[in-house]
Structure formats: C-alpha cells, structure tokens
Amino acid sequence: MYQRFLLNILTLALTSASLVYANDYGVGFSLALDYGTASIHFAIGSSVDIIKIQGGPAYKETMRSPEFWDRHAPAPHYRSLDSFRSWKRPSSAYFELQSLRNHLPSWLGGQDLSSQPLSWMVNALKATAEAYLEAPISAAEVVFPFPTSELGYDAVRSTFSPLSLKMPMSEQPPAGILAARAYGIGNPCNGITVEQNLKQSQTDGFHPSQLILTVDYSDAALTALLVFEDCYVFEDRRVFHDTSIGASARSETPSARRNDLVRALRNITILPLEDGNGEELTQINELVLLGERADDHDLHEALKEVFQQKYWTGNFVTTYKEGNGANVVSPLFAASRGVAQDCWDRIDFSRSAEAAFDRL
Fold this sequence. Notes:
By secondary structure, the chain is of the alpha+beta class.
C-alpha cells in the first residue's frame, strides 16, 4: 500500500515535469522589494518583456523581512549552461527532481509557510504572461535582488506548487548576475578546460577571469554585487543591500543620499581582489545597471565620482550593453530577461539530454 502510494506520487511528478518540456520558451519573474516583473525568452533567441506589477503593503513587508535574506550566508554559485557546452556528457546536477516535500501537505512533512503575499504577485505575473502567450505556463524561474535564505526559497516553492508551476532551477543567484546574463556579459572558454585556459593566459596574456559590478537601484533600496566571473561561472564576492538609501528615501537630502551612494560603492569596489588561484584582480571589467531607477542622475554621478578617485588602482571600462532592435534590454527587465533565458536553457538542456538517453 505504502509503495503504491509513493509510486503514484512519483509518476505524477514525472508526468508534470514532462509538461515543462512541451514549450519552446522560458519564463522569468524578478521579485524586487516593491514590484515584480515578467519576461519570456523564446527558443529562437528573442525575448519579450511582459509587465511590471506594483506590490501591495503585505508584499512589500514580506520582501523586507530579514528572514528572506541572510547577509552572512553566501548565495549559491551560478553556472550558466554555456559553461557546459564543451562537455561530452551532461552534468547530473541538472537532473535532480524537485523534492516531494514541496508538494506534500504539512501533515506528511510538507512545508506550511505563510507565502500568500508572494502568491498574489506570482499569480498576477503568471496570468499576464499566459494572456500574452495565449497558453498555460507550466514552468518559470524566480530571482530576488539579494542572496536569498532557505526560508525565502521555501516560500517561493510553496507559492509555485498550488499554481501548478515547476522550477527548472529552484535556487537562483541575485538579480544582478542574471541581468549580466541578459546583457550578454561573460567570457567563453572556447571549449577548453580551465587548466588549458591558465596555460594560454601564461603564453599570450589572455585570461577569461573578470570582475563585474552590478548595481540594482530602485525606490526601495540599493543592492550592489561585486561578481567574479570565469568561463560563464559567476560568483558574488561582495554584497551590499541597504533600504535606507533607495531613490525615494524620505529622510535623505539629495546631497546626503549621493554621499551615501558614493560611500557604499566605494566600499564594495576596493581592490585588489584575489581570484582564488593566488592571482590579484586589479580592475573592474563590466558594469551592470538594473532596476527601476537605473537611470537615476545621483546614481550616475556617484559612479563617476567613485571611479575617478585616485585611490582606485584599476581601469574602469563601462560596457552597458543594450542590444538592438527587438532585443534591446531595459534595466527594469534585465533580471527577469536573464532568468527567463536561464529557464529556457535548462528546459532545452533537459529535453536534449532525455532525447540522448532515449537513443542509448
């Protein structure tokens, strides 16, 4: 009896997961402190931004909860699937089934979290995306501005399950890293190993490692990441998140807010920084701006001031990539575009792997 019960649950989970692979697009939701955005990335390579939805009081309170992020807990490292393109076989890390715990009632050990504020937002983003596609959505991924605690991820999973949504990757890095992906930032390893890249760097001076500064600015907060990237593997080395210096901070004068921005950006960009292999990184190679106030005048003036200081030893190179035509990237939707692209990549990767295994 017990075995039949588990078999039925497993069959249902696998059947539901197979529905994910029927679509030729990925859906991404970015949950900022005051609002949410949705984007869709299609298999042909194009993306579309769907909507920005302002959150209500309960949503804003939930997103500001200290339980949602832990400043002492590092975010999971993010490996773009581009870092696996030269592999001869897929990594088993991307075939893990979502825990049955996320789908069981509380009396069977499932999660029983208060995620109603997130549910309203996710449901609204899902409904709007479905209206655009004129089809039901069965898979999506979510990203937050800051490194998210396990409690935060549990709340998202509890929100997705009643909406019949699956997450190809349930724990995403902060929004800045996904925005960098949307802007096309990342150094390819040209299909060779890290050891070969190191040897190449010693002979011709080329090395794929780089530092990326991501700045997520909104009315509610400033969130900045100093990210180390190597062969499409992204790792945030420093994180700054402060709700007291958002663009609409009431207690600040413009000059005081700009000074706070300068101080925060200066602290997070102190160099050199070790790359983990004994080498020092002495320059920031890329700047990523995202969020509803990415074009804020005070923010831009603060960035100029920080990177013109004599104390800073690096050379600042701004590559604010926007694309062209239908694929122009708006800073407001950069994070949701990046996570939508990641969602599609993982769906396509799993579908291709299933087809390869079927041929064995």
